[in-house]
């Protein structure tokens, strides 16, 4: 499929009908980015119900890392459907679960691990919190999470999240014994204008000085739960010293390092998992999103001795569905065979280079950051005050959509670029041509 191809300004007539029906039939507890009504998708191209085609810089929502309907995934799903669709793994056994666990452990940053399958990112986080607290047999009730974090919408996952007040308003009381500390958002370091590494050190110092000495003894903390790169918070890449420092702080106090690799995982950043950029070995890790090429699957991976919840204490009905597992194994094969990790690094590098060049002329661009194909472009109204360009972001997303490029935002005013890892340089540059034109137009007002 070729894209972009706009045959009618979206939303077209059929799209408008679906949007209308959707608003009557489906609870509107979420906010859609723009009225895209998808009919089909293949690779990096999405077609809507009116025949418009778009270049997809969203990958669904950072899910189809191998591209839409990758042939390997389609084939694996079809084969599995003809064999076995369900037989609750936490009540019985099947071979696919063991095979897939072996594959997952092979690519994970945890040397000697075990797996628990879930159905979503939030469920992986819920489980990871239980594993962390349960491993201490109740002696360490606290979890330290980070401001700006997003871990999901269920009660536990929401309680460790802190990216937007609207996520929690009206849902109190939350899960207790969760402490939030600042994240090293170097473009807006919460500790003032500091060098990148100093900002990383300041966060660690804050935990030691202000949290451990005044609020809670480290012996009561089960885990640090952290996104190696904050996703919904604004595609925030921490300074290089941060995760290694956090790991050593955790080890000094017997606290587990739990990474939320739900968005950063499965090749998104040019490594299988983002932890691998910094040589960090987490004790626990949550995965989902890109893991199964679009099928609902998540996983908790943890060090063997940490994954020790007693029988009966944690289980689910659908986790590790055999079709989703077959898809996951196909995703791993596809990434390996097509060397998508290198492609993510190569294309991602060129995208960032071009965005930085654009930034020399387009005042709206305040910061460009990322790893692999997880790239954020922070828009500001004024480079000296760094006032977030929220309205401008909304216009950039809407205009890009109308011109055939699908991008969404994150944080307050960040354009998020997360295309499939299979994207060609040509497709990436075609998408950037649209984005550049839109940014120039919006910048001019
Ligand atoms: C880092 C991170 N963790 C957890 C989640 C929650 O995943 P899910 O929507 O599958 O529950 C998300 C979703 O955006 C995420 O980005």
Low-confidence stretches: none
CATH topology of the largest domain, by name, is Aspartate Aminotransferase, domain 2
CATH architecture of the largest domain: 3-Layer(aba) Sandwich
Bound molecules: pyridoxal-5'-phosphate
Distance between the amino and carboxyl termini = 34 Å
Beta fraction of the residues? 15-25%
Strand order of the largest sheet: 4-10-9-8-7-5-6
CATH uppermost class of the largest domain: Alpha Beta
Helix content class = 25-40%
**Mean pLDDT across residues:** 98
How would you describe the shape? globular
How many individual β-strands?
Answer: 15
Most strands sheet: 7 strands, mixed
Q: Say which CATH homologous superfamily of the largest domain is assigned.
A: Type I PLP-dependent aspartate aminotransferase-like (Major domain)
Helix and strand succession? HEEEHHHEHEHEHEHEEEHHEEHEEEH
Overall radius of gyration: 22 Å
What does this structure look like?
The strands form three sheets. This protein has a seven-stranded mixed sheet with strand order 4-10-9-8-7-5-6, with helices on both faces. The chain has a four-stranded mixed sheet with strand order 1-2-3-13. A four-stranded antiparallel sheet has the order 11-12-15-14, covered by helices on one side. It is globular and about 60 Å long. The model has no long low-confidence stretch (mean pLDDT 98). The chain folds into two domains: 72-337, Aspartate Aminotransferase, domain 2, CATH 3.40.640; 339-445, Alpha-Beta Complex (Aspartate Aminotransferase, domain 1). The longest helix has 22 residues, at 340-361. It has helices at 13-25, 59-62, 71-81, 95-107, 121-135, 155-160, 196-211, 242-252, 322-337, 340-361, 390-402, 425-444; strands at 38-42, 45-48, 53-56, 113-118, 142-146, 178-181, 221-226, 256-260, 284-287, 298-303, 365-371, 374-379, 405-406, 408-410, 414-417. With 445 residues, it is α/β, with parallel strands linked by helices. Pyridoxal-5'-phosphate binds next to α5.
């Amino acid at each position: 499929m070729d894209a972009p191809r706009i045959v009618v300004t979206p939303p077209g007539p059929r799209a408008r009908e679906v949007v209308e029906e959707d608003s009557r039939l489906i609870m509107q507890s979420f906010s859609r980015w723009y009225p895209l009504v998808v009919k089909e998708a293949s690779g990096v191209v999405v077609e809507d119900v009116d025949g418009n085609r778009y270049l997809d810089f969203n990958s669904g929502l950072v899910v189809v890392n191998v591209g839409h309907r990758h042939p390997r995934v389609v084939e694996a799903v079809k084969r599995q459907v003809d064999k076995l669709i369900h037989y609750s793994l936490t009540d019985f056994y099947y071979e696919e679960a063991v095979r897939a666990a072996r594959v997952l452990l092979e690519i994970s940053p945890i040397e000697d691990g075990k797996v628990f399958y879930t159905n979503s990112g939030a469920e992986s986080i819920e489980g990871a919190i239980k594993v962390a607290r349960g491993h201490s047999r109740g002696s360490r009730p606290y979890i330290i999470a980070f401001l700006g974090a997003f871990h999901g919408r269920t009660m536990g996952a929401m309680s460790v999240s802190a990216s937007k007040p609207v996520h929690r308003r009206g849902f109190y009381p939350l899960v207790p014994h969760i402490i939030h500390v600042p994240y090293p958002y170097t473009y807006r370091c919460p500790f003032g204008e500091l060098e990148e590494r100093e900002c990383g050190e300041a966060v660690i110092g804050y935990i030691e000085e202000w949290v451990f000495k005044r609020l809670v003894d480290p012996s009561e903390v089960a885990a640090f739960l952290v996104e190696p790169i904050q996703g919904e918070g604004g595609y925030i890449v921490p300074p290089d010293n941060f995760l290694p420092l956090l790991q050593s702080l955790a080890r000094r106090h017997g606290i587990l390092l739990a990474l939320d690799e739900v968005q950063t995982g499965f090749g998104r950043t040019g490594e299988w998992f983002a932890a691998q950029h910094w040589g960090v070995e987490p004790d626990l890790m949550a995965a989902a999103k890109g893991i199964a090429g679009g099928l609902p699957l998540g996983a908790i991976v943890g060090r063997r001795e940490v994954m020790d919840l007693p029988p009966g204490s944690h289980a689910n009905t659908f986790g590790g569905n055999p079709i989703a597992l077959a898809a996951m194994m196909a995703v791993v094969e596809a990434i390996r065979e097509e060397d998508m990790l290198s492609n993510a690094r190569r294309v991602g590098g060129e995208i960032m280079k071009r965005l930085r060049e654009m930034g020399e002329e387009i005042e709206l661009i305040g910061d460009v950051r990322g790893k692999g194909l997880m790239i954020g472009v922070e828009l500001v109204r004024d480079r000296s005050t760094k006032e977030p360009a929220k309205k401008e972001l909304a216009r950039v997303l809407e205009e890009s959509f109308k011109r055939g490029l699908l991008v969404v935002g994150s944080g307050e005013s960040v354009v998020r670029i997360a295309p499939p890892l299979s994207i060609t340089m040509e497709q990436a540059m075609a998408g950037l041509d649209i984005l550049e034109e839109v940014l120039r137009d919006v910048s001019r007002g």
